[in-house]
TrEMBL record:
<keyword id="KW-0132">Cell division</keyword>
<dbReference type="Pfam" id="PF04079">
    <property type="entry name" value="SMC_ScpB"/>
</dbReference>
<dbReference type="InterPro" id="IPR005234">
    <property type="entry name" value="ScpB_csome_segregation"/>
</dbReference>
<dbReference type="InterPro" id="IPR036390">
    <property type="entry name" value="WH_DNA-bd_sf"/>
</dbReference>
<keyword id="KW-0159">Chromosome partition</keyword>
<keyword id="KW-0131">Cell cycle</keyword>
<feature type="region of interest" description="Disordered">
    <location>
        <begin position="179"/>
        <end position="198"/>
    </location>
</feature>
<protein>
    <submittedName>
        <fullName>SMC-Scp complex subunit ScpB</fullName>
    </submittedName>
</protein>
<keyword id="KW-0963">Cytoplasm</keyword>
<dbReference type="InterPro" id="IPR036388">
    <property type="entry name" value="WH-like_DNA-bd_sf"/>
</dbReference>
Length: 198
């Protein structure tokens, strides 16, 4: 087999670096409008029996794993790490009250949060520091990120569910519902049906 020439090597490099399949025109644009079809055909032959192949799909060219080796590349899907209850509550507080300080999060939750909770949320890319509050001690504030919106399918924070939506979805704890009823003066009768306060 003859060694690849400079044009073949250049076409190969362009295709390996490409994020998506490329047309002949797109490949030529990288190489000063060189005639690349013979190089593509030669590369396709060169890779025909290898672990990766140069293939043409429609008018676009790209490298892909040889079909008979695809089973070697399958991996068990890594389960995303689940947030702890503290992480979930902290994320919700930040989302609904941003920008918010650690002390404000703790005041709303009623318990101290560990540094690890904020670290996990920072690592996921769902929150970020947003500067310091102009009060004594200048505490750091936190806000949600575009990654948070993307992960939860929200266009903006305005799309966050309201209290009625959360209640309807059954996402509020019975304790939360009982507290809400006690504050509103509504108490369930023996059958579990709420009585309206007079």
């Amino acid at each position: 087999m003859t060694p690849p020439d400079d044009l073949m090597r250049a076409v190969e490099a362009v295709l390996f670096a490409a994020e998506a399949p490329l047309t002949v025109h797109e490949i030529r644009a990288h190489l000063g409008d060189a005639e690349v079809r013979p190089a593509l055909d030669a590369l396709s032959d060169h890779y025909a029996e290898r672990g990766v192949r140069l293939v043409r799909r429609g008018e676009r060219w790209h490298f892909e794993t040889a079909g008979d080796l695809a089973h070697l590349l399958r991996r068990d899907r890594e389960e995303p790490r689940k947030l702890s209850r503290a992480g979930t509550e902290t994320l919700a507080i930040i989302a609904y009250h941003e920008p918010v300080t650690r002390a404000e999060i703790e005041a709303i939750r009623g318990v101290q949060i560990s540094k690890g909770t904020l670290d996990v949320l920072l690592e996921t890319g769902w929150i970020r520091p947003a500067g310091r509050r102009e009060v004594p001690g200048r505490p750091l504030t936190y806000v949600t990120t575009q990654g948070f919106l993307d992960h939860f399918g929200l266009a903006s924070r305005r799309d966050l569910p309201g209290i009625d939506d959360l209640r309807a979805a059954g996402l509020l704890d019975p304790v939360d519902l009982a507290l809400d009823r006690a504050e509103s003066g509504d108490e369930p009768d023996r059958d579990g049906v709420e009585k309206e306060s007079s």
